[in-house]
Amino acid sequence: MTPSRARARAWAELLRISALFTVPGDALAGAAATRTAPNRGTALAMGASLCLYEAGMALNDWADRDIDAVERPRRPLPSGRITPAVALTAATGLTAAGLLCAAPAGRRALATATALAGTVWAYDLGLKNTPAGPYAMAAARSLDLLLGATATAPTPARHALPPAALLGAHTLAVTAVSRHEATGGTSKTPLAALATATTVAWAATRPPTRTRSRTRPLASAALAAAYLATAARPFAHAALNPSPHLLQRAVGGGIRAMIPLQAALAQRAGAGGAGAGLLLLVPVARRLSRKVSPT
Asked: How far lies 95's CA from each of 55, 70, 114, 165, in Å?
């Protein structure tokens, strides 16, 4: 492998490039909840979300560099392929870029992006290894969907709260499983994640009263089933054998399942076109995850 390709590989691993495709759907699902077609504000929210997500990935590895030196010595920082100073600089720069992207979308969008950035930094630097860690990560993902709503429409984003809660519940379950992926755990956590995914899938088929005339029950059920199929199987395998390998696969499956969940949430709000478009990202994310782990 040439030096340039080796550097590119290291950055792809640091930034979890295969998980990046789970991010744009947050903004689209948030826009759909406002019953507003995607616009310039939605695009700005996507840009902000992508930057802040990648900032979180770089900051995560900077904060975990000592732990990774023991548990995951092949990661970019402990292996020396990227220095801690460079990773921290990247996290800082990407955070600033995310806020700059959100600013033109308005004060409410910038406030939401600022809250999201603060949650990401608080999680990586202090909350990750505490009982509050999974809840902080869930809050970050919910805020990401709300960012799409506040950037897209000038009206209050209260209609985006239910889909944000569903996305947050799924994220909470995946993050709880991820806390044991390096060392192994018990069946309790993946079983709870499986129950959560089942509940979220059911809720995603229940359209808000105001949008029932615009939704297609069969399409909503199909997308919810696609989400559940992506998440449930690895969760079930991890519950039967909570080894590090199967827990890592469960986390990877849970991350990829966010795409069909976002599609189901968009369809739930009556934005079938956005939901169908998001599904095109699923094979890309799956293919990349075979080359670069999303965890």
From this structure: 6, 28, 9, 24
pLDDT 10s digits, 219-256: 888 999 999 999 999 999 999 999 999 999 999 999 99
- CA atoms lying within 13 Å on the CB side of residue 210: 8
The pair of structure tokens assigned to 168 is: 């947050």
What's this model's pTM, rounded to 2 decimal places? 0.94
| Residues across the chain | 295
Q: What is the dihedral of CA 224, 253, 234, 200, to 10 degrees?
A: -30
User: Which class for 70: exposed (0-12), middle (13-18), buried (19 or more C-beta within 10 A)?
Assistant: exposed
The string of DSSP codes covering the chain is --HHHHHHHHHHHHTTGGGGGGSHHHHHHHHHHTT----HHHHHHHHHHHHHHHHHHHHHHHHTHHHHHHH-TTSTTTTTSS-HHHHHHHHHHHHHHHHHHHGGG-HHHHHHHHHHHHHHHHIIIIITTSTTHHHHHHHHHHHHHHHHHHHH-SS--GGGHHHHHHHHHHHHHHHHHHTTTTT---SHHHHHHHHHHHHHHHHHTS--GGGGGG--HHHHHHHHHHHHHHHHHHHHHHHH---HHHHHHHHHHHHHTHHHHHHHHHHHTT-HHHHHHHHTHHHHHHHHHTTS---
Return the sign of the alpha-carbon dihedral for residues 51, 273, 149, 217. negative
